[in-house]
Design goal:
The complex is a heterodimer of chains A (112) and B (110). Chain A has no helices and eleven strands. By secondary structure, chain A is mainly β. Chain B is an all-beta fold and 110 residues long. The chains are: A mainly beta (112), B mainly beta (110).
Chain lengths: 112, 110
């Protein structure tokens, strides 16, 4: 089954404790991206990747890192999480940047 | 001005009526336009995409694009209770970025 898998689905952590949210797709898509979704602000792009080893900042990259060492995986790293990073996070992939995006199930992150 | 704007709603539509959702965008060079549906607590899923001016129909859904006026709309005919969701407009403007509007919540009056 074609899918984008994110883990974990829910995470509560403390300020400053490094964490990684994993994202994996099995559709051989080139384009992958991370979004955060906050009430009233919609989906905002954090980082995107056009292909292996090619990443770039989206609209809200501060406090986040990504890597794309393999085509299927695109982890999101929070080196030192802060409470303002409490949000719902989505990973998405698509064949190319201007085609349909397939979303993961979402990760609800709470930083206390 | 926001790059992609939508009325947040909620938009109340009686069952069986036509729901009309609108989206405006600021970048005249935008190339591709998408409508996603997101149920509460779930991830967005694609309903329609449109690349050219005019109308595109798929079942009960019609997407309309007017590049001169920089708007894209989604019509939902014969609204059903299952259409109650938030509808997200997304635009690709050619800069490797895919930009979403804040979404319009559709409330179906069953």
């Amino acid at each position: 089954e074609a899918q984008v898998t994110q883990n974990p689905r829910y995470l509560i952590t403390v300020t400053g404790k490094k964490l990684t949210v994993t994202c994996s797709q099995n559709m051989n898509h080139e384009y992958m991206s991370w979004y955060r979704q906050d009430p009233g602000l919609g989906l905002r792009q954090i980082y995107y990747s056009m292909n292996v080893e090619v990443t770039d900042k989206g609209d809200v990259p501060e406090g986040y890192k990504v890597s794309r060492k393999e085509k299927r995986n695109f982890p999101l790293i929070l080196e030192s999480p802060s409470p303002n990073q409490t949000s719902l996070y989505f990973c998405a992939s698509s064949y190319s940047v201007n085609t349909e995006a397939f979303f993961g199930q979402g990760t609800r992150l709470t930083v206390v | 001005q926001k790059e992609v704007e939508q009325n947040s709603g909620p938009l109340s539509v009686p069952e069986g009526a036509i729901a009309s959702l609108n989206c405006t965008y600021s970048d005249r060079g935008s190339q591709s336009f998408f409508w996603y549906r997101q149920y509460s607590g779930k991830s967005p899923e694609l309903i329609m995409f449109i690349y050219s001016n005019g109308d595109k129909e798929d079942g009960r859904f019609t997407a309309q694009l007017n590049k001169a006026s920089q708007y894209v709309s989604l019509l939902i005919r014969d609204s059903q209770p299952s259409d109650s969701a938030t509808y997200l407009c997304a635009v690709y403007s050619g800069t490797y970025k895919y930009i979403f509007g804040t979404g319009t919540r559709l409330k179906d009056l069953a």
